[in-house]
Amino acid sequence: MTSKTNRVAPNRVAATLAGSLVAALGMVASASAGPVAAQPGMDKCYGVSLAGQNDCAAGAGTTCAGTSKVDYDAKAWKFVAKGTCETIKTPKGMGMLKPM
Q: Fewer C-beta within 10 Å: the chain N or C terminus?
């Protein structure tokens, strides 16, 4: 009876890990597949995202969300609380409501 329990537990662990892997891969694929949906109460703020953390619009050589190659890219935007974008200070200047 003990050997039966030992065979079942690894199968459950493997199934759980496989399910988690599929879910994680699905999230990665959807994150880089296109723009992030509009967010109520949020503004698109250009020039404030770190490399790989933009929500979209990252210029040439990128596909969209999470694809910016440099920190504070003036062509990449991230959602921020409405009315706060132009108050965000970065090493390259202030956040902008339009791309540079």
A: N
